[in-house]
Amino acid sequence: MHSNGVAVLAEDLARILTCFADSPADIDVKKGQVVLQIRDELIEANLIRQNGQILVEEHEQKLPVTTWIINRIARVPLLADRILAYVAEPKYFVTPSGRLLDYLSNDPKAEERECRDALSNVRDLLGQRPVGTSSVLYLTSDAGEGKTTLIDKLAREQAERYKQKKVDWLLLPISLGGRAFLRFDELVISALVNRFRFQLLYYEGFIELVRLGVIVPAFDGFEEMFVEGSSGEAVSALGNLMNLLNSEGTILVAARKAYFEYQSFRTQARLFDTVGDVSVGFAKLAIDRWSKGQFIDYGHKRGLKNAESIYKIVVQRFPPEHPLLTRAVLVRRLFDIASTVDQINELTEALGTKPQDYFYQFVKAIIEREVSDKWLDKQGKEGQSLLSIDEHLELLAAIAQEMWISCVDSLRMDVIDLVTDLFCEQKTKSPVFTRQIKERIKTHALLKTVSVGGGGVAFDHDDFREFFIGYALGILLVKGSREDVRSFLRVAVLPQEAVEQVLPMLQAANLDLKTLVKDLLGLSSSESATSFVVENIGALSIRVIDGVNGLDIVIKNLTFPAQSLRTASITDVTFEECYFFPTAITSAICENVVFVRCIFERLELQQSVALKCTMRDCVINALVIAPSIEDIIYDPIEIAEQLNSHGIIVEKVDSRKKEVRKRIKKDREIISIEKFMRIFLRNTHANDDVIRLKLGQDGAHFERDIIPELIRHNILAEVTYRGGGIQHRYKLMVAMEKIYASIAESGGNYPEFLRILKMESRT
């Protein structure tokens, strides 16, 4: 069965129907008849051939097989109704702009272009559904910039148009819900059953509908899963899904970055190598932050005629690129808090006193409004606040902590009641106050009710949830026990926003930072190297020591997250046997810093940066000298030379490479192969025209001399080209990770690269 709507052959029908039935025994297709039992209903129909098509005749109605399966068996029109019922219409929707990196099949030059209407562009890209290849569209932006809103808006529009028979596919929003690991089968069925109340599909049936192009799933929430240094479950799960789709169907992935934007070839190769032999193309649409026009447009849609005056007031205090003016979620909240000029003046003055701490002040402003306007005693002393601002923060932090410990992003109402009861008991609130607090918390301005999983309460946005996770951890570090902190840190990798919130609380408590770091190191000393505690303490400690002089401390056996050294100012610190995920040190100030037996997955330096630190017997897997981020250095001798030229004293070269190579310059063929490999980050198969454009003047030499040799060594293979014109099409026969490892091992020598890769292929 193909996604272009051509009727299936009769012999395939039984296989497809099995995906929707309770048991294969419930299906019988023979002698031009179909008998099956689905959901306690016995269905009998005839197969007839008419005008070259196979039709299904049931109750004197004749339908093409594809249409019959979609409407009668899968009940997709009912799913359209459920999407309209359970996906809320986004209020005051402002169409975002963006930048599109199209599929290589559409744009072999791979040039990013501006698009004013991101919604229409996403709809058009998802509606292409080419035959013979799966399509993955990444919708990227930072958190709070409109990915989920755009998905929900498009899902509702498509459902409406589907019901009007104007389109033949639905967009199905599926939230990952911050899961640290995932299985797509559980994720999909959970969304269908719990969110959309649609219990008519098994996972196999869902896959068939995606292959048909009838359903385009939108997986929302990959932000924390594609990051460099992740454990890889997300990319592996996505690769497995591509294999199930078998070169058909389209999906949308909402994330902060597309996987091919990461410089870490480990992340890139992991997904490519799990895809296997199927054909997959990748595109990206990056949502832009809001401009002045969109800010004002949003204000007008809310009925505020003074939106432009509000913008001018805010921009006097903050730069035009400030999140309060450009991030959709914060703009919405800004208008929630203040709608008059006087209120805006008051708010911006409060936020501007400590610009580096604006988000805390912003949350505090929301809570102040709750305290003064809504959280007032209605049963006892009129006008008395039920909770102070600090108590509000602590109660919301307790809710965030319960979500964190339970690995969920929402809590059932009874759990909210329990957390609130415990909080009120600790604060010795009267029963009258406790009852009112339990009622009000469920409608708090920073929370929202959700219908998934029987109903409950979640934070209004991930920004607020992550803020209060950090606030809860700050309370534990200041007041809690050692074991409470350890239990908190064992759950998962802390969001960066949570880590950032902890530091102001530690500073406000006037804790001795050197003692705090030593206490944190004590917590990690009994943990295994793969424990979340080790990585979380690494993230916390690097923020604690940032900008602090005279620490004179040794940090051992920690794992540091991606970009942990990018802007850090570190002095008088020794790192021993630590692991650093890919990090830039472009503007870092490192004085009297020593790295001993540390492993760096990848270092990124600026041409002009000068550092004062020592690396002793360290392993640097790769080095990038910006701005030329495509030229990655693997050779340990050349890495040492480059580090020395930037003021880093390298006392011992990578101990894994004892031989000293005289030649550092890469062969022309190796440079071409590296460029050629980058094609496979966007498409699992490479066509002639793309190769020529990517390699430029070296393209003819590569096609004439190198491709035949790569085919002869079983590194590359030619596959059937499906498309217009005459072209050659190639796929890799060796894992991408092995190819990059062989390039690094060869030191830029092409014959050596072929020899190493040939040996690797035998193992």
Q: What features would you highlight for this structure?
A:
763 residues, alpha/beta, Rossmann fold, 5 domains, seven-stranded mixed beta sheet, five-stranded antiparallel beta sheet, 29 helices, 31 strands, globular, disordered N terminus
SSE order and pairing:
Elements: H1 10-18, E1 27-30, E2 33-38, E3 41-50, E4 53-58, E5 61-64, H2 65-73, H3 76-86, E6 98-101, E7 113-115, H4 118-126, E8 134-140, H5 147-163, E9 170-175, H6 184-195, H7 203-212, E10 215-220, H8 233-245, E11 250-255, H9 265-275, E12 280-287, H10 292-301, H11 307-317, H12 323-326, H13 328-337, H14 341-352, H15 358-373, H16 389-406, E13 410-411, H17 413-426, H18 431-441, E14 447-450, E15 456-459, H19 462-479, H20 482-489, H21 496-508, H22 513-524, H23 532-544, E16 553-556, E17 559-560, E18 569-576, E19 579-580, E20 583-584, E21 589-596, E22 599-600, E23 603-606, E24 612-616, E25 619-620, E26 623-626, E27 632-633, H24 636-645, E28 648-650, H25 668-679, E29 686-687, H26 688-695, H27 699-712, E30 716-719, E31 729-732, H28 736-746, H29 750-762
Parallel strand pairs: 8-11, 8-12, 9-10, 10-11, 16-18, 17-19, 18-21, 19-22, 20-23, 21-24, 22-25, 23-26, 24-28
Antiparallel strand pairs: 1-2, 2-3, 3-4, 4-5, 6-7, 6-12, 13-15, 14-15, 26-27, 29-31, 30-31
Helix pairs in contact: 3-5, 8-9, 11-14, 14-15, 16-17, 16-19, 17-18, 19-21, 21-23, 22-23, 25-26, 26-27, 28-29
